[in-house]
Specification:
- By secondary structure, the protein is α/β, with parallel strands linked by helices.
- It has two domains: about 180 residues, 3-Layer(aba) Sandwich (Rossmann fold); about 240 residues, Dihydrodipicolinate Reductase, domain 2 (2-Layer Sandwich).
- Helices cover about 30% and strands about 15% of the residues.
- The chain contains 13 helices and 15 strands.
- Helix 5 runs parallel beside helix 6, helix 6 packs antiparallel against helix 12 and helix 9 runs antiparallel to helix 12.
- It is globular, with a radius of gyration of 21 Å.
Amino acid sequence: MNRRSFLKAAGAFAGVQILPGCFWTRGYAANGKVRLAAIGCGAQAWYDLQQFDRNSDICQVVALCDTDIGAPHTVEALKRWPDVPRFQDFRKMFDVMSGEIDAVLIGIPDHSHFCAAMEAMRRGKAVYVEKPLAHSFRECELLRKAELECEVVTQMGNQGHSGDNFYQYRDYVANGTIKDVKKVVSHMNMQRRWHKWGGAVKSYPPADAKPQTLDWETWINAAPYHAFSKDLAYGEWRCWYDYGNGCMGDWGAHILDTIHRFTLKGALPSEVKISNVSGWNPFVFPIQDTLTMKFGDVTVEWYEGLDNKPKLPKGFFYQTNEGLFPASTANDGLIDPPLKPGKEIYLANGEVWQGLSHASPLMRCGDKFKPAFEKAHNNHYRNFLLAVKGEVEAKSPFSVTAPLSEIFCLGVIAQRLNRGFKFDPVNKVAIDDPEVDILLEGPMPRPGWECYYKG
């Protein structure tokens, strides 16, 4: 069975509706390097670009695209690659350069991941998409289906999923070191951008003068339109339900990825609950809340907010990891806190394992017990590039990361409604809850962007 036949059979088995055939040809630069275009040049995308550039033996940056190209946060990328073509609209970039691009980095706000990824995949380009994969549950589903049909290499930017953390958890599950998990407690208790408003947000912000460098219409993408404001752009988009996926969307992919893949086997929850909420409003995320999700016999808890920390287990020790949060634009100026983002894993036999998000190995509470495990071979960026070249498998393809990101979308729905709901994980609909079903679909795409949502 060839790869196309296998993928279509897998899609049919999973009840996936295959999209129309994609059109493309695959090739590489004469020097054998993967020709990479960047959609997004500043902040996290600039960090990603630097990581790809460290693999210049197999990667060549051939195009830069940013809706605010020329703005201060894009200058470093422009100086690093002064001679490559520059664009503000990824659609125009593909129209001009599609035949000269093999792969695309998508490092733009959450609400705009989907359309850029769909355009690239339909043109046969491998895609590296920053986490979370997409802004709505429906978008995640459509990207997963497109991956099957277009047969391109995909990777989500949860960088630790190619590191030691991935191999350790995989091996510990395989050899029975971690088994019979009953509960996972996860937490990210750091200052977030929306905390500065204290939850007292009563409307979208008033319009500001738009920078001359910015194409705001393209920045808005398919999402609901609001006039430009400095409180909507430049990282502030993370705060707003219309554009961001909040704390869980930002950090869940680093903290829960191996749990979801190897313990929960890619499942979706049957119930989502929310508690300990403060600062709720219908525009930006709460100041704090606790999300609880049921996956059969396993309960996953998520704590966020400066003062909403979980009760720590007996034997817990504070792990040190200086430099986890360097003060940079990409990391929102975060600094290392005492309780770092991470998780505690409770087993049926009473053992508890603890670990940081993706920066150090898991250790058993109390004795730091660490059996041997396979170590990482390549980092996330090189893994993607080698996968594009057909030499390895990508560690975080959409088949794995779409359902993971769907969990975050379900959490956002509970935060937005300020209530829990029951969910059918097989049919992927809410149970007797049409309000939730509407949010699963996401907003109607703006005129001109509907084509990306049609099979």
